[in-house]
Records
---
Amino acid sequence: MYDPSALTSTYFPDRSARLGKHKIFIGMAPGVGKTYRMLEEGQRLRDEGVDVVIGFLETHGREETAEKAVGLEFVPRKEVIWSGRSLTEMDTDAIIARCPQLVLIDELAHTNVPGSEREKRYRDVEEILAAGIDVYSTVNIQHLESLNDLVHRISGVVVRERIPDRLLDEADQVVVIDVTPEMLQERLKEGKIYAPEKINQSLENFFQKRNLIALRELALREIADNIEENGIENHSRYCNIHERVLVCISTYPNSIQLLRRGARISSQMNGRLIVLFVADPGRFLTKAEALHVETCERLGKEFGGQFLRLESPDIVSAITEVAREQHVTQIVLGETQRSRWQLFTKGSIVQRLMRSLPEVDLHIIANSATID
């Protein structure tokens, strides 16, 4: 039976007054069966009398996936003209107007066509949830923002389409679709994931066994951490221990990598994230540097953090002041770029912080040149 405690919209005609429930199917890589499982559950609920529609489906030519969608109602996509080409996107307004109890939406991390009302599909999903409609969606682990650098180190692939980690935290249910690396490689060889001309290239690159093993472990660990955090959430309200993680960024490009690492530390500790940029009052930022700082601010807020910007000729004093005011327990910063002469005349930033904040733990991230 359709469980109203899991998906509220069955017994609430005025769904606009309530948020819809969100269930995410996540996997380690393309082809594990996320979309198939989502459709399977949609078919089961439809048979039980639930009003289910497909908001967006991408089969990638997989016959088994397409067959599993037979009998479910599709909300037609809308046409979008971009650069003289006719493209299609999910029609969020049409889904809300149709007002089903449950909508199935594939590829949560998708980036919409430029000029769309919302840049990312997950923003469309948030609109649908706000309308009181329940959503099932799919995503791969490599699309999580904070894992971007780690996935690149594992696979050598730069993932361009990403979602903020908060979506997993805010979801009502997250289901891991798990298969062994060997089984996934076999599916690939059988042509069940990509077209024949892409199989060998995929096996030699992203679908190498060592990559799949690492990504599988990453997916299982991420969801385990998510469950553990949700489990201790109520307990932490009664504890007097609140981790506060301060990430110190600069104008160096590796600040983004540093910020992601700090966000993961904060998430794993169920703590609060604070991002700090200390500007030199005697120096104007270039346009590129200003844009970089804006990117860090946006990313920090996507991680649910607070962004602070101060002007000070003494970066250590500024960090110390913020750490004390914000009751910071952890500080994340990168390896120094100072020359030996600067270290001799001004001292090490890490050493000065250790003397100023002996009660605060410092995380020095290797090869992340973020502090001048």
Note: Residues 240-365 form a domain with the Rossmann fold fold (CATH 3.40.50.620).
---
Amino acid sequence: MIEGDIMNNLELEKMANEIRKDIVTAVHSAKSGHPGGSLSSADIFTYLYFEEMNVDPANPKWEDRDRFVLSKGHVAPGLYSTLAEKGYFPKEDLKTLRHTGSYLQGHPDMKHIPGIDMSSGSLGQGVSVAVGMAAAGKYDKKDYRVYTLTGDGEIQEGQIWEAAMWAGHRKLDNLVVIVDNNNLQIDGSVEDVCSPYPIDKKFEAFNFHVINIDGNDFDQIRAAFKEARETKGMPTAIIAKTVKGKGVSFMENAAGWHGKAPNDEEYEIAMADLEKAGEALCQK
């Protein structure tokens, strides 16, 4: 750690690479799951839990903690891997993902998993929940902030925009909606399936402060969350352009890896890619 609890970008990159290894390992062990979006979101998860959010793994239900809702709940491997690296539960438990009897289910379960603030998985609902949490914070005069991660395919759901309209109307400046804009969903590119573009203009129309970034660049991620904290009187939407399957050569920008586990041979290639990336980071 640098300067107390502040991590520099190199440390964040190293942590994100470890989280990507955990994602691939967990999905491979489960023989099912969603690696593509988990990998594209890994840098966002890393920054949220190791830099941005005020949370305590030793006290997951701390009343004044910042809240996070994973609206696109199928990328649970990304969130679980981050929580494990943060110390919420043992890393070795990641290998039990989706196994019968495991508390690490295919979608987040707040009743059984430490650090999960809301059970999710039904697409389109997480932003509504996050808006409710943010409103509760305002009513209770609490200082906590609320973050939610949604997908660019997920925002085809109408409930997202009902929630956005209410959040903008209520001026919930303690709310940050992050869109993982990797441009791919299960059936192909989002623009071909049902285009949500321009995403930024839509959120602006619902009275959000909007920031467009490269969601795999820690300089831009850091600046965006700083800007969000400084924005008063309106919620913030961060449109994070990312690479689906980021870090694994054969998964990058491939819709087929939305919800498929690597076999043994593919697992070895993926881990070799990430080991090589980790070695390169150690040379910096």
Note: Residues 9-30 form the longest helix (22 residues).
---
Amino acid sequence: MTEKERMLAGKLYKAQGEELNKDNQQAKKLTRLFNNTTEEEKEHREKLLKELFAATGEKIYIEPPFNCDYGSNIEVGNNFYANYDCIIIDVAEVKIGNNVFFGPRVNIYTAGHPISAEVRNEMLEFGEPVTIGDDVWVGGNTVINPGVTIGSNTVIGSGSVVTKDIPDGVVAAGNPCRVIREITNEDKEYWNKLKNEYYKDVNE
């Protein structure tokens, strides 16, 4: 197996070799071009992201700066937004659903490193995929670690370190990130009331 094949299979690998170096250089080029765009170049930004990522939905927006290892292992759905300083270390697949919003400095890490220093010092590492469902809000300065799945309709509080799976329909926060409570019908009613008041005010 090549180093890239080993990486994508979740086996120990070394981040070297012609294929991985080529993919990494392409990602660095595209992220450099993206990060050097201006606020007037919204369409060009989206074009660069669609070239960088493996798959994208409609209406994706990322505030520069943004960085990733390869980009080709990232999939995002419709209506994706990431605020400043998002970093995605995508040595394994990162799948993000529809209507997912990131606060500033959200980091997703799929890369893992051996506990044994002897093995780690040989520059061996591995990757585990990250999956985020639909309708998820991730607060600023959150770190999402390798192998984590975050369910749909869930809110992750700012400053969280997500080390284990988080289910659908909850508010979770902390280091390590834990479920605080379920999202209820009372939450929906409260926020729909405020939404209706907003539209009433702006339409008067």
Note: The chain has one domain: 3-202.
